Amino acid sequence: TKWVYTFGDGAAEGRAGDRNLLGGKGANLAEMCSLGLPVPPGFTITTAACNWYYANGQTYPDGLENDVKSALDHIGAITGGRFGDPSRLLLVSVRSGARASMPGMMDTVLNLGLNDVTVKALADASGDARFAYDSYRRFIQMYSNVVLDLDHDVFEEILEEEKARQGYELDTEFTASQWQGVIALYKQKIEEELGKPFPQDPQEQLWGAIGAVFSSWMNHRAITYRRLHDIPESWGTAVNVQAMVFGNMGETSATGVAFTRNPSTGEKLLYGEFLVNAQGEDVVAGIRTPQNITEAARIAAGSDKPSLQKLMPEAFQSFVEISNQLEKHYRDMQDLEFTIERGKLWMLQTRSGKRTAKAALKIAVEMAAEGLITRNEAVKRIDPTSLDQLLHPTIDPKAERNVVAMGLPASPGAATGEIVFSSDEAEEMRSAGRKVILVRVETSPEDIHGMHASEGILTTRGGMTSHAAVVARGMGKPCVSGAGQLRVDYRAGTMTAMGQTFKKGDIITIDGANGQVLKGAVPMLQPELSGDFAAIMEWADGSRRLKVRTNAETPTDARMARSFGAEGIGLCRTEHMFFDGARIVAMREMILADTEKDRRAALDKLLPMQRSDFVELFEIMAGLPVTIRLLDPPLHEFLPKTDEEVAEVAAAMNVPEEKLRHRTEALHEFNPMLGHRGCRLAVSYPEIAEMQARAIFEAAVEAGKKTGSPVVPEIMVPLVGLKKELDFVKARIDAVAKQVMTESGVTIDYLTGTMIELPRAAIRAHVIAESAEFFSFGTNDLTQTTFGISRDDAASFLETYRQKGIIEQDPFVSLDIDGVGELVRIGAEKGRATRPDIKLGICGEHGGDPASIAFCESIGLDYVSCSPFRVPIARLAAAQAAI
Ligand code: PEP
Ligand code: MG
To answer: At which positions is Mg(2+) bound (predicted)?
Structure first.
């Protein structure tokens, strides 16, 4: 087995396509080398070696050691160095690199190979002792943190103390001998903490770092990140070892990161930040505030610190050319890392850049216009679930803004919540159902869970590429970073801004669009769905086969869904129409009535309400199909619970409260979800179905007259398992239809169909299709009944299942294709066998889940139906499934 792939000097053993084996970083380093770009020579230890390492009790495969040795010689042959030899100095960086980029999740060690002897050689070779000792102390810090597991703060404390003693503001002010002093303190501290000295042998250092990269694949942060992003553990990580180039070799050296287009807005402008006389980690760590790369960006930001363009025009020019070349080569926006060593540019990384949903749309649309990609590719480029970010509110421009601080607009969207100062607090409050804004000086990978639990993130330090900014954009959370006027005091649990003090629990709003921090809650606006969004949606609509309907029963939801492009209603849950105000009382009267006569009396009260609801829905959806489902839920959902509720219904029904209580008790069920619900209610109390059918038909007549286009209602019977259940209810529906047609003199076209949400219904679909003109797969109940897992109680143990690797995804969120999906496929096939033109749709939650939508496309359903906010996601996912 080949465990190691080398690259350097215009040649490489790997290519961009080897991402699975070499990881994203390694594959792209190889590719850049082959393109002839300036990349420090190096080698990649494969992900296969990482997997071998874990499969074999954390040991290395035979031959790896030799391969690494020859690869080091390969680097040496290019640079003229020899690893570990002070007379021919060769220092390396060691970085992880998984298949999917996991920003901040894995660890990096720079300047490896330095020790008490080689540091002198570095000082001599560079003619800059300050630089050499600065590099050595950085190495000790990083290595101790990443490999020896010492807390970062240990060193920060020593450093801060020394800075204070010297009266310095910046690290760069230290002289060589002062750094030597710091190094002595560091080494002393390490010995104290670990009981052994800092390793001096470069080979030991190297293997320590390689082992640390492999181990970090299984650290808590990495595991969390993988879980959140559905990255399988089996991918493993690669290790990249590269000759060092130094951005901290004085004022003509620098290091930076850049995007070929703005990752926040998508604007086509090189966008990035750098620091003079610094090493890689300084930029992302957000410790010094970085400078802009281009003059244009500097001016736009109103910064008085010179841009790279001004400061190092030649290196800037080559960087611009290389970034253009890479964007064209990869046909996507690139995220670049570079170092300038004494005026010479080196590329350290390229990869497709993470971006906000808004930027993703703009970039895709513009790249299609530039002819770099096709429209179908543009459609394929957008992650459907990310559209969610665009569908969420922004601050109403007319709202009064009580601005207490300004930071950078690090990730768009606005959010309101209670202040918390730690990630653990954020998680606790979130699980108590509260909305929080995580306020930190800066964030680190340890804060991922807290960021996830928050509505938005606010930091007082760090730039647009700080950890907080990058991660928040990836998560689609609003973020304001680097709000320098804010003083956060973790110990006191306060945040001070312009003379005002905020405590934990106080409400603030952040505006990720302009970097403002606002006091209190602020009115928000619904998003604008035009421009790039509309363009992508139009292209998606042109490519999809599946129709997209919505699950909606209120006029507000129905209108919203239409504005999101819904092509009808796939599920109107009529029971949801009975929850408010006077309706719930009438509903309770109906449920608690113990004679048909009383029940009919209550139903008579409900009829006009129900009818007017349907008229409104039919009007909103004029010209589009509307599926209305007859009453479905377990009746206990409607039973009065408090004494007041009982009293209210008793008064309305004119019966003693006591009697009502007995009736309530009599209706109690042990297993209501498998109890008296769905069509079973219609079988017991056909008058309910009759009332609903009447309301539907009368509304159809009325709305048809009003809108001028005839309404073709689709009446859906829930929870059918037996054809005879459907036949029984259908007979009532047909009878009412006849009556209403006679009464009104209007002919009504309508369809009667059923939910397929029980395994029996799927298996007997060919028989049920004799009576059903359409099927709608109710995959919520079908998942519940196929697994025998209660949809209401599953959350408490399914997460454990996931953690223990028994399931990969919650089957109530993403369809279990092998099991539940198989029943859907069988149901669809059998239904079509009996009735070739049967209409088939899905209306469980899965109708808005991209992976489930792809499955629906593969079995040829006619439509998916999902909640209004998911409609754009479904339109896009349906197109991607069809392309
Ligand atoms: C279903 O069961 O999938 C469904 C859509 O119906 P409900 O969620 O209302 O039970
Ligand atoms: Mg159901």
So the answer is: 757, 781
Ordered DSSP codes for 169-238: SSGGG--HHHHHHHHHHHHHHHHHHHSSPPP--HHHHHHHHHHHHHHHTTSHHHHHHHHHHT--GGG-EE
Tokens for 728?
A: 């029984």
| ipTM of the modeled complex | 0.99
Would you state the pLDDT for residue 464? 67
Give me the residue label for tokens 């052994």.
196
**Is there a catalytic annotation at residue 843?**
yes
Q: What is the C-alpha separation between 100 and 112, in angstroms, rounded?
A: 25
Answer whether 0.90 is exceeded by the pTM: no
Q: Which ligand is nearest to the CA of 845?
A: 1
Q: What are the pocket residues of ligand 1 if the criterion is a CB atom closer than 6 Å to any ligand atom?
A: 571, 573, 632, 757, 778-781, 843-844
Q: How far is the CA of 106 from the centre of ligand 2 (A)?
A: 44
Question: Model confidence over 820-861: pLDDT tens digits?
Answer: 999 999 999 999 999 999 999 999 989 999 999 999 999 999
130 shares its domain with 188: yes
DSSP result, 822-880: HHHHHHHHHHHHH-TT-EEEE-SGGGG-HHHHHHHHHTT-SEEEE-GGGHHHHHHHHHH
| Ramachandran angles phi, psi of 489, nearest 5° | -120, 100
Is residue 289 over pLDDT 60?
A: yes
Annotated binding site for Mg(2+): 757, 781
Distance 781 CA to ligand 2 centre (A): 5
For residue 765, report the distance from its CA to the centre of ligand 1, in Å.
Answer: 18
Do the Cβ atoms of 750 and 700 come closer than 8 Å? yes
Q: Are residues 501 and 561 in the same domain?
A: no
pLDDT in tens, 402-453: 999 998 888 878 999 999 999 999 999 998 889 999 999 988 877 888 998 9
Neighbours of 215 (CB within 10 A): 18
Sheet holding 237-243, edge to edge: 11-12, 4-8, 42-45, 237-243, 92-98, 108-112
Tell me the two tokens of residue 594.
Answer: 């113990």
| Residue written as token pair 């006029």 | 555
Banded model confidence at residue 577, pLDDT cuts 50, 70, 90: confident
For residue 307, give the DSSP letter. P
d(CA 290, CA 825): 56
Kindly give the distance from the C-alpha atom of residue 799 to the centroid of ligand 2, in angstroms, as a whole number.
Answer: 23
Q: Which atom of ligand 1 is nearest to the CA of 551?
A: 5
Q: Ligand 1: which atom is nearest the Cα of residue 779? A: 3
Q: What pLDDT is recorded for position 287?
A: 64
Active-site residue (options: 33, 50, 572, 843): 843
- Cα–Cα distance for residue pair 721/706, rounded to 1 Å: 38
Task: Specify the number of domains making up the chain.
Answer: 4
33 tagged catalytic: no
Q: Whose CA is nearest to atom 8 of ligand 1?
A: 780
The answer on 576 and 503 residing in a single domain is no
Do 269 and 225 share a structural domain? no
Query: Which residue ranges are tagged as binding site?
Result: 573, 629, 757, 778-781
- What is the distance between the alpha carbons of residues 242 and 232, in angstroms, rounded to a whole number? 27
Distance CA 68, CA 339 (A): 25
Question: 689 with 682: CB under 8 angstroms?
Answer: yes
Tell me the residue range of the domain where 778 lies.
Answer: 544-882
Asked if residue 509 lies in contact with residue 522, where contact means CB atoms within 8 angstroms, the answer is yes
Last residue within a domain, chosen from 192, 220, 243: 243
- In degrees, rounded to 5, the angle at the alpha carbon of residue 368 between the alpha carbons of residues 366 and 369 is 60
Q: Which long-range contacts (CB under 8 A, 24 or more apart) does 826-829 make?
A: 826/762, 826/763, 826/765, 827/756, 827/761, 827/762, 827/763, 827/765, 827/775, 827/777, 828/765, 828/775, 828/777, 828/859, 828/860, 828/861, 829/765
Q: Does residue 824 share a domain with residue 851?
A: yes
Both 504 and 592 in one domain: the answer is: no
Give residue 429's identity as a one-letter amino acid code: M
Tally of CA atoms within 13 A in the half-sphere of 733 that contains its CB: 31
Which of 628, 755, 787, 790 to mutate for ligand 1's pocket (most ligand atoms within 8 Å of CB)?
A: 755
Residue whose Cα lies nearest atom 1 of ligand 1: it is 778
